[in-house]
Design goal:
Elements (H helix, E strand, L loop, with lengths): L4 E5 L6 H12 L2 E4 H14 L7 H7 L5 E4 L2 E4 L2 E2 L7 H11 L2 H15 L4 E5 L2 H5 L5 E6 L2 H14 L6 H17 L12 E4 L5 H15 L3
Parallel strand pairs: 1-6, 1-7, 2-6, 7-8
Antiparallel strand pairs: 3-4, 4-5
Helix pairs in contact: 1-9, 2-4, 2-5, 7-8
Length: about 220
Amino acid sequence: MKNYIIALDGPAGSGKSTIAKVIAKNFGLTYLDTGAMYRMVALYILENNIDFNNVADVENILNNIKVDIIDDKFILNGKDVSLEIRTPEVTKIVSPVSAIKAVRVKLVDLQREISKGKKVILDGRDIGTVVFPNADLKIFLVASPEERAKRRVKDYASKGITEDFETVLKDILERDHTDSTRKESPLKKAEDAIEVDTSFLNIEESVQTISNLIKEKIGG
């Protein structure tokens, strides 16, 4: 198959972006971190003191936002914001920001445009249900909230950020609820998605499991 789409969905902290990066490298795919795209919008809103609860205000500034991904760097209006978009402050508001219909429309259109004519792996929450419902392979990653919180704390620590486990766990549970109950493109498993539980798998084991699925369904 010349070009194909792999959709990798799941809740926060399930390992999507880490696994997708390795898979992309191993299979020579274009990797599109859709969550980072929403984080860039959230960062812009934070930096410009926009009230994300005011949908009209958010809609009015969307044309001022240009997001791009170049060589694994996340570019917001010409500036590399790869570190800034991973802060707890951005994490806290990215879910309500991504629930805004105008934001989703803008970024879904961009995701589809970037993916045209390529072998692509995309990770997010609605890739297999909304962005690419006809994806060639759909995978839904899950892991226990506690395991995901441990991973998030460890990830923050690697960036020099100290966060309390209980606080992170609370944030993850709140985000799960927000993401799965929102009106616009809620987090849910596509009917034809294959579920992979990474709670007791390390990165290498998770990558191997998904690599086997790719070889079986698409070829490698």
